Amino acid sequence: MQTPDYQRLDRAHHLHPFTDFKALGEEGSRIIERGEGVYIIDSEGNRILDGMAGLWCVNLGYGREELVEAAAAQMRQLPYYNNFFKTTHPPAVKLAETLCRLAPGHLNRVFFTGSGSEANDTVLRMVRRYWALKGQPEKQWVIGRENAYHGSTVAGLSLGGMAPMHAQGGPLVPKIAHVRQPWWFGEGRSEGQDPEAFGRDCAAALEAKILELGEENVAAFIAEPVQGAGGAIIPPASYWPAVKAVLAKYDILLVADEVICGFGRLGEWFGSVHYGLEPDLMPIAKGLSSGYLPIGGVLVGDRVADTLIEEGGEFFHGFTYSGHPTCAAVALKNLELMEAEGVVERVRDDLGPYLAQRWQALGAHPLVGEARSLGLIGALELIDPATGERFDESLAVGNLCRDLCFASGLVMRSVGDTMIISPPLVITHAEIDELVDKARAALDATLARLA
Ligand code: PLP
Predict the structure, then answer these.
(1) CA distances from 263 to 208, 290, 421 (A)
(2) Is 144 in the pocket of ligand 1 (CB under 6 A)?
(3) C-alpha distances in angstroms, 417 versus 185, 311, 382?
(4) CB 74 near ligand 1, within 6 Å
(5) pTM value?
(6) Which helix (H) or strand (E) holds 168?
(7) CA of 59 to the centre of ligand 1 (A)
(8) In what helix (H) or strand (E) does residue 282 lie, and over which residues does it extend?
(9) Per-residue pLDDT tens digits for 339-354
(10) pLDDT tens digits for 145-157?
């Protein structure tokens, strides 16, 4: 089959996630056929540097035979069995042990799921159940953040704060509130306010929301260490210490959504380690298997786990694919390779600083109001060089830049007028140079189109 054949069948039968179905029908999909290292190759033979590691997940890059072999071997041995009703299998046990060894010391249990969304559904049920078992069943409110993404199941989208998602599909899960995000460049800072004062203000907004809802009614706060899909929002240094203090003051659980930040993205095994957080629960997915097979989970801290175990009886919750043996075997091999190759340390000590230095230079481009990065996540804030302000939304400049990027052989994603990258963690210096050069070329081309 050739590209037009795929496009015709795709148009006729395939409803894509997060896609305007009608517009896609008119434009036709790009068909990705292969992957090698940090590159994807489309059905026209174009070799494209995948600056997003798929959807922030292909941490070890494409084409790792060891992961293929791990899947094949496990499928021959036991392709599927479940973990329900007091049964398990070696891959799930070994993966649970490895995850708890890699996670901060107080996280000693894991509940497996098939995805990050299911992990956040599990979180919601666990935190409410925890407080019920503690004799405080009124503690049900969970506070998330505006513009946060925690998944597409009903619980995931309710915990998330994406207004366009909330506007579709009817009532959300009750007793979930949202507070402002620590996006200094983007919104909410007062005139002349520096990032640190702004970070403290965001934490104060959380405290105000807790008091509004009544501290006795608030179960948990959920947030990513660095907000990914919202626009690679790296909080000011003041933010997390102030949030931690607020949560401790009112005895509220912290859920650190590590679906993107986990497994080396910020140069530590978990983003929580980078920021010195001690989360009670950590949803994980994506980089856990480098995206080779779908698997997620929730790492559970002793405080919650002990209560669920000692006082909870049976937890009526689970997925057919919780701890799926083939997915678990691939995840285990993925973690083994990451450890053996020192991937996380390399992001922290070498690749992250190198990207930061190259990426910062893009801040001098006339279209860029801010260039920021941490580990291997980065963002560019686009501005109108004539005014120094944001472009009118209707111009969709971010999407224009994204399309020009793709045409020049780089996947860079746009969230409004914020351009974001999250490349595979095995990227080399030369590939970082290529990524930055292509991003600059796309900025130049965008500027030329706007002239
Ligand atoms: N949480 C975060 C922070 C995410 O970025 C995502 C997906 O992008 C999810 C949860 C949902 O994960 P999944 O798509 O595996 O359901």
Answers:
(1) 33, 9, 16
(2) no
(3) 12, 49, 5
(4) no
(5) 0.98
(6) none
(7) 15
(8) strand 281-284
(9) 999 999 999 999 999 9
(10) 999 999 999 999 9
